[in-house]
Write a sequence for this structure.
């Protein structure tokens, strides 16, 4: 199935600069219309293998939502990945990409009973729950399935007053898993999630400690904690950096040692961003560079990509992407970066300081690095007449890989 | 062209409750899959006519971005509306809906020269600019066109440190319009925008005063201010209400009197939301109702619509939609409302207090009112496997109006 991707089946990662050269080489040779995303499949494979190396004992469930492109899913299925899915459509995408349904974990705790039934009919046998109504749905529509219970990952004091959208108070986990057993399901264990682009390698400590405490309580009622899903949150390389993934692996290993000792459950992780983000470059074009007042020191730089057609994660300036331009190396000055739509909130960076070359002019390219995750799949259907983000996938030779019509 | 819409050509608005009954009647009879948007075309026509009545001296440029559905554009074109467009695609949508290009105003000041050329080739002759590079593009690609200069609408003290994405400092307007004349363009006047869903009917005062001051300055250099575009910002009816549109018309009238007296320029307004929002209901379904901790007083209510598939404007809880359920009238309790995706930020209302019936259960409908603007057109291409929002358009008989394939 992945014959045409054989060249990406590598065991070591190459320097990120080499990936950038390959991506930009493709862009410079083919000059596709901007904005567009280019994803380097060898780098996706390398990202997957890197996490496999760092977490050798864990099942790796790729979080499909990060980048659901067929080419990416097909590559990862061929490399033996499992998949974290959130909807019947994502189940179907994975199956079409060659994944066996026993490799799928339905991790979304917000699901209609009909969604559970659809996933079950397609062969999915592992579901995560975090409430009684969710559990009852799974029992009714996926009889006999394995279930994980998702718990809050943070100490109570650090939560919002309302807690979080996913997970439940740890004190509910025991009752839910015992209820699961009574409903004929197979209670497998716990999951938690420390939040996306997590910059603290120690963030898993509280969840692991909580899981270990609950494991003892569950064992006392005859329910061994056989599985622990550590979720995602592993970072990609944006402008302001992140600790190396090896530090995350080491910190998690130490937490597991501390709280579980030798009696560890089977482990799972759900990386998404950390597999695909670094493999993508989003090429945009400068629309305008202007000053809006005589006394302003900064320029406004308007790109042809913004919050509605690819750079969704600049909301609240959460992700500060690294940028490359054709004029890098020359003198720079402060800018406000904004997208092309008529939406006054379609501003990328205003509080976050960016300096770009003073020579930057309309028509110049601005390349957005580490753009392989949460970009094309988050674009709108065409707000203000700006089309969704086309995507190209390239192989080790820097040329397009034949997909199945999901590319640009 | 609008023969089949003739019944919506009404001159008086009916009570909003009647519109809701018609919309919900359609939904109850046809039970389309949820989530979906239903837009009542008679109410769109009434919204347009109401603004025409309130601003009889102004050209009404419908802001296409609010709802670019073909059925809506076709109806408004038939009623004689002009259109505010922001991209070549929006130009094409309007022309396909039957608008004459001399009815189009290209109001986006962020545009590539190639976009200007495309719009000009399609017949557009009115462009708004707010910077010299933008002006130079228009002069090059739309020679001889009419131009408006967009200025900041707020007093300097109320602006962010960086100003705003659109508009320029008023002191730049004179130089830009004089430059426009030298470049062979026709400087027509000024525009400004007070911000969407503006709740202060007096918000136009500063912009009108500034425009009057600049008019005197411009006249001194031989450039009469022949047009003033007051932008949009007129509100729709969300949960927490807004002043009646008549108060806006009165406040603007008073400002114009105060600053221009009898020597008024030609006026334009650019309503979008206030034309279409109230005409739409978004029907969603409750996915789950759960409690995440024993000590929580509130329930989490998860809907099958969220920030990624229609309710984009709940970002930062900006728009607090009014909701109707089948259990209204019974006892209620506090809830947190969230969408169906695996995104932890896909939460609709957490800080904004909502109380919903305690009887609310999975499968129940929750109808989101005043959802006709900035919903379907802002949905993602399918984040997490959740499809864009299908739209149905109904006529005065409450039955679907034959569109051109842009409906659900």
């Amino acid at each position: 199935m992945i014959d045409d991707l054989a060249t990406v089946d590598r065991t070591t990662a190459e320097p990120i600069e080499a990936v950038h050269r390959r991506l930009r080489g493709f862009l410079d040779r083919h000059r596709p219309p901007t904005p567009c995303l280019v994803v380097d499949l060898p780098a996706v494979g390398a990202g997957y293998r890197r996490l496999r190396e760092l977490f050798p004992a864990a099942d790796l469930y790729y979080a499909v939502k990060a980048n659901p492109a067929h080419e990416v899913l097909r590559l990862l299925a061929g490399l033996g990945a499992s998949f974290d899915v959130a909807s019947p459509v994502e189940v179907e995408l994975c199956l079409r990409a060659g994944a066996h349904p026993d490799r799928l974990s339905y991790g979304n705790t917000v699901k209609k009973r009909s969604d559970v039934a659809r996933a079950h009919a397609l062969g999915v046998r592992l579901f995560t729950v975090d409430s009684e109504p969710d559990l009852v749905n799974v029992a009714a529509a996926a009889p006999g399935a394995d279930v994980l219970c998702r718990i809050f990952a943070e100490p109570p004091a650090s939560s919002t007053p309302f807690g979080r959208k996913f997970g439940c108070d740890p004190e509910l986990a025991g009752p839910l898993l015992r209820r699961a057993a009574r409903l004929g399901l197979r209670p497998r264990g716990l999951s938690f999630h420390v939040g996306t682009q997590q910059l603290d390698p120690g963030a898993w400590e509280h969840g692991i400690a909580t899981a270990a405490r609950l494991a003892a309580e569950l064992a006392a009622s005859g329910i061994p904690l056989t599985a622990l899903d550590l979720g995602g949150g592993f970072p990609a390389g944006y402008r302001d950096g992140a600790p190396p993934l090896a530090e995350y692996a080491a910190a998690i290993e130490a937490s597991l040692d501390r709280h579980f000792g030798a009696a560890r459950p089977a482990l799972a992780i759900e990386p998404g961003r950390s597999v695909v983000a670094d493999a993508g470059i989003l090429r945009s074009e400068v629309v305008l560079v202007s000053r809006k007042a005589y006394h302003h020191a900064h320029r406004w730089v308007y790109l042809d990509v913004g919050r509605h057609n690819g750079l969704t994660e600049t909301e609240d300036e959460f992700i500060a992407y690294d940028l490359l331009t054709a004029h890098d190396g020359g003198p720079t000055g402060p800018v406000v970066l904004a997208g092309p739509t008529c939406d006054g909130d379609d501003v990328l960076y205003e509080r976050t300081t960016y300096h770009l070359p003073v020579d930057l002019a309309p028509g110049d390219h601005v390349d957005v690095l580490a753009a392989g995750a949460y970009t094309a799949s988050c674009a709108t259907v065409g707000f203000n007449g700006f089309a969704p983000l086309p995507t190209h996938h390239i192989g080790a030779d820097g040329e397009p890989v034949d997909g199945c019509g999901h590319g640009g």
The longest helix of chain B spans residues 205-220. The domain at 42-274 of chain B is CATH 3.20.20.10 (TIM Barrel). The first strand of chain B starts at residue 36 and ends at 40.
